[in-house]
From TrEMBL:
It comes from the Bacteria. Residues 1-20 form the signal peptide. This is DUF4197 domain-containing protein. It holds the Pfam family DUF4197. InterPro entries: DUF4197. Keywords: Signal. The keyword Signal applies.
Length: 244
């Protein structure tokens, strides 16, 4: 097993510049040896299970947080209107009845994102279940955000497919699309402006997913750097080897 793993690490390092290969190879090999050897060597199953457990924990916290009321709106991941929309709103806000339109729309698009976030869990769970031992070792020995980037590359397409219809429906449910349509109609009546109608649902979907992966990355970093958060024996054992 160890020979196979070390061969894999060597091959992975071949793409690095020659001057970096030796140092990188030595660092990864030391980590791999610490995980698979020592007084209590870890099995493939233990390493894989620990990574899946860690991802489940980080994803669960992120989804729960962002799907709650004000999960996006009152967090660092609050979704603001796109620049083009802000330009439209700034012109329209001087018109009667549109004085608070920016705050109103911002509130509504964040509510839509919070509704859509509830759809994320099954997609993440499917990606986590698909982790192989090779994936798990790469993530454990990788950068601080390795697990987040793995999820991002393996779930973004499916999440977009799930989120966008929900975002669109949620924008309708909270009347954001109706309000936006009125804003655009009022804007397009202003003399000499270029007629426009930017789509809200695509923009909100993109920002909602950026926020979700941003929070998952925070949770991953915390678990890697704060041993107190490793709340099962398996997490403590496997991540203790990563610390070395």
């Amino acid at each position: 097993m160890r020979r196979i793993l070390l061969l894999f690490i060597a091959l992975a390092c071949l793409s690095l510049p020659a001057t970096a290969q030796l140092g990188k190879l030595g660092k990864l090999a030391d980590k791999a040896s610490g995980i698979l050897s020592g007084e209590n060597p870890l099995s493939d199953e233990e390493v894989g299970s620990a990574l899946k457990e860690a991802l489940d924990q980080g994803v669960g916290k992120a989804v729960t947080s962002l799907s709650a009321q004000d999960g996006y709106l009152m967090s660092p991941y609050k979704i603001l209107l796109p620049e083009e929309a802000q330009a439209i709103v700034s012109r329209v806000s001087a018109l009667p009845g549109f004085g608070n339109v920016e705050q109103d729309l911002t509130f509504r698009i964040n509510r839509a994102a919070e509704t859509a976030a509830k759809k994320a869990t099954p997609i993440f769970v499917s990606a986590i279940k698909g982790l192989t031992f090779k994936d798990a070792m790469n993530l454990l020995m990788g950068e601080q955000d390795a697990a987040t980037r793995y999820l991002e590359s393996n779930t973004s397409s499916a999440l977009t497919g799930e989120f966008q219809p929900v975002i669109r429906a949620a924008l309708d449910e909270v009347n954001a699309n109706e309000i936006w349509a009125k804003v655009v109609a009022a804007y397009n009546k202003i003399p000499f402006v270029q007629k426009t109608e930017p789509e809200l649902d695509t923009y909100v979907t993109q920002r909602a997913l950026e926020g979700m992966f941003g929070l998952i990355e925070v949770k991953e970093t915390e678990l890697r750097e704060q041993p107190a958060l490793r709340n099962t024996e398996l997490l403590r054992t496997v991540f203790a080897r990563q610390d070395k």
